[in-house]
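Subject: mismatched residue count in predicted assembly?

I count 133 residues in my input, but I want to confirm that the predicted structure covers every chain. Input:
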Amino acid sequence: MIKRINHIGIAVKDLDAAIDFYKKLGLEVSSTEVVESQKVKIAFIPVGDTRLELLAATSEDSPIAKFIEKKGEGIQHIAFHVDDVKDHLKKAVDNGIQPIDQEPRPGAHDTLIAFLHPKYTGGVLIEFCQEQD
Ligand code: ZN
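Triage response: the counts match. Full output below for your records.
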């Protein structure tokens, strides 16, 4: 069952400028992390029991660079908090929704993640996100 939003991914060109903006709203960055496989640097901003993830490209061929080129800065994906990514992935496929990731893969913040293809989700890039302990 999906009980909450784990995080909202926001594509930004300039990570420091974006952090400055959210600071003006009274929000604070808890940590940053580079995910080499995705060519992104992420700043985590806790908001209650969810968080914003500011995503900046570390390379021109990063998915985030491509996203900004096509659509500009802004909300890039929504991540649902799930107990079992594999199970949710299978249910989606059973319901005719094609994933980007056929198998769960490691995400930022020690999570297991999988994305659904926006073509099958009304244009919203949806991520299943499972926290590992
Ligand atoms: Zn995410």
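Residues 15-24 form the longest helix (10 residues). Marking this ticket as 'not a bug'.
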